Amino acid sequence: TPPPEPPWLAGLNPEQRRAVETLDGPVLVLSGAGTGKTRVLTTRIAHILHLRRAQPWRVLAVTFTNRAAREMRERLAAMIGPVAESVWLGTFHALSLRMLRRHAEKVGLRDGFSILDADDQLRLLKQLMVDANMDPKRDPPKALMGRIQRWKDRGLTPDRVPDADAREGAARRARELYTRYQTRLLELNACDFGDLLLHTLAILQAHPDIAAEYQRKFDYILVDEYQDTNVAQYLWLRLLAAGHRNLCCVGDDDQSIYSWRGAEVGNILRFDTDYPGAAVVRLERNYRSTPTILGAAAGLIRHNTDRLGKDLIAAGAAADDPDVRKVTVRGLWDGEAEARWVVEEIEALGHEMRGSGNGTGNAAAGTAILVRATFQMREFEDRLMTCGVPYHVIGGPRFYERLEIRDALAYLRLVAQPDDDLAFERIVNTPKRGLGETSLQTLQIMARAAGIPLLAAARDLAASDELKPRARTALGAFVADVDRWRALVGGMPPSEVCATILEESGYAAMWKADKSPEAPGRVENLEELVGAVAEFETLDAFLEHIALVMETESKGAAAGVTLMTLHAAKGLEFDVVFLPGWEEDLFPHKRALDEGGQASLEEERRLAYVGLTRARTRAFVSFAANRRIFNNWQASMPSRFVDELPDAFVDKTSDTGLYGAVTAGFAEEFGGWGTRHPRRTLAAGSGGSAGRVAPGTGTWKVRDRSGDGQGIRVGQRVFHQKFGYGTVQSAEGGKLAVNFEKAGRKTVVAGFVEPA
Ligand code: ATP
Ligand code: MG
């Protein structure tokens, strides 16, 4: 007799139930957002285990993120208890690693091989480029790395990269380097992230016995978010499922948003050709969102031509339910007003964060602010902090903790406070100024010996002959830069000082020249920083604010409002979702429009669809009429996506009257909008906001140092490590002019000589 029916089946609708109970053979659940695909997948595992169709370690389940895997495991444990622990549940990478550890020798790796992070990866690639005499100007390392990664996404080892893919110069060189890179990794007994999948795939392909072993091992295979699998992942699955074909994939073509990382939506659209006889289940009832949110989302996504097309029915409240609110669409004055409005709304909703127990089991479910680009987060973070609303950022550091922002802040700190050695260390050779390890060590030793700050030591060192000429010049130029920037403080608005520093230091240029996929985002963040500085009257006031912000941040709990990118929000759900920045060029993003045409526009629209469908009860879309981009105010147009939301489901509380009339007046008052294109360009000194900012009031503490050369007198005989013995001719500041017996007359740092 079969075991009694478990409680979790009772809650499913008939289609979901069919997807759960069709255990044998391929099953595809291709359905819209919030229809219970993830729930089906979790329940299916529970059901398999409950019926004892397989032992837990013979079930393989793939999720999109580690976090999703954790959540699924928790839900599973809640249904069937601790056996959930033994299920092979994780991301493609995590699962591949588990297999690779067992068969490492098959691809030339040894036990305990290491996995390189992105930094190591790039460093290694650069070394190889030097060895191969490759010109990093012609072939930017990050661009080469990108090509290699795309090949890996497609499951192509170097020998398999087709000639057609490597014909033009850069591609051909990339393929050659790819070969060397893989060889070098093996010599180092290491692999990179992409290799986890690639190596495992290669093993399965080259060793039918191993493939057969895994095909026998896993009785059931399940995959969430199948629309975002890349070719390597697709092939990996196909090999593993080749025997029994007990493969269940769930996904939604309307939510395919990772093509820029090699994902191919074609994988899901081709499923029933790849697996003939597959049971295809379509779920139409959405259990997550209100009918208005669904209506708005459906109206939007209908503008995509390249889709299967499916509509959703709200399972909960009816559209005429008085409790069901329309999607709020609001136009605001500028980004600051937008942030203020969002946080006001959050407070007005009096939203008690729910600890747990919702849908997919997200712990911090409640309210989310979902942005298109990370630079947008800053304004919200500032506002949330000011109002004391707890929040956390998912999928990346908070704004002021980002690498490029910390670097930029280090420049500002050093200018405001020349004794700030930590700031000095951080940026003295960022961007590269040709200061090697040895020079910097000399500097450290000297500063410590003399008990003076690094900047002061650098000044002395640059005026001496201690360093090689190249390093000396570089250090001198850096000190001169800092002095010049200090002189600007007080005379111009702090945001312009900031802009000037980013420009003249070459720091902004460094990221603009960078070819990595995250570099444009970093440039945007720097521009956003300049905007943040513009809100303060003095540089000191800004830095004080930052110090306080950092202080609260380090205490931040992982609760409260969730701030994250739209990309990271896939699969999650929240009671209330805010979708700010729906403006042309921001969302849809200018980069997507410029580079990818219609296909990219449709991917942006799918991203908007993902955003809207994260909401259970309320969704708020907003756009600003003006953005301060760097030092320029710039008018923005509401996103085309705003217009695509059907009127019936939205409530435009926007003060559109604000538009024409007032903006024109504003433009007059502040001297025009600045150029609209190119968007966000870093150019120093064009201060559209200058009129708002009072002159700074920075003051400088000048360090008082005695000029006696640390107790060494003129005429004294001294010894110097590099130049040997000599006699002191004169002493000034921390520097000595010494007539060396062998080296001749040199200027040296007083701390570096000892009485002979
Ligand atoms: P997405 O496409 O966004 O990943 P999804 O299709 O995976 O969404 P789920 O996250 O599984 O959808 O489910 C959405 C919400 O609906 C969850 O809160 C889930 O618990 C709930 N739900 C799903 N099916 C049912 C059902 N039959 N009865 C009640 N609630 C359900
Ligand atoms: Mg899901």
UniProtKB/TrEMBL annotation:
This is DNA 3'-5' helicase. It catalyses: ATP + H2O = ADP + phosphate + H(+); Couples ATP hydrolysis with the unwinding of duplex DNA by translocating in the 3'-5' direction. Pfam families: DUF3553, UvrD-helicase, UvrD_C. GO terms for molecular function: 3'-5' DNA helicase activity; ATP binding; ATP hydrolysis activity; DNA binding. InterPro entries: DExx_box_DNA_helicase_dom_sf, DNA_helicase_UvrD-like_C, DNA_helicase_UvrD/REP, DUF3553, P-loop_NTPase, UvrD-like_ATP-bd. Keywords: ATP-binding, DNA-binding, Helicase, Hydrolase, Isomerase, Nucleotide-binding. ATP binds at S31, G32, A33, G34, T35, G36, K37, T38. Its EC number is 5.6.2.4. Residues 10-290 form the UvrD-like helicase ATP-binding domain. GO terms for cellular component: cytosol; DNA helicase complex. It comes from Roseospira marina. One of its GO terms (biological process) is recombinational repair. Residues 291-571 form the UvrD-like helicase C-terminal domain. Belongs to the helicase family. UvrD subfamily.
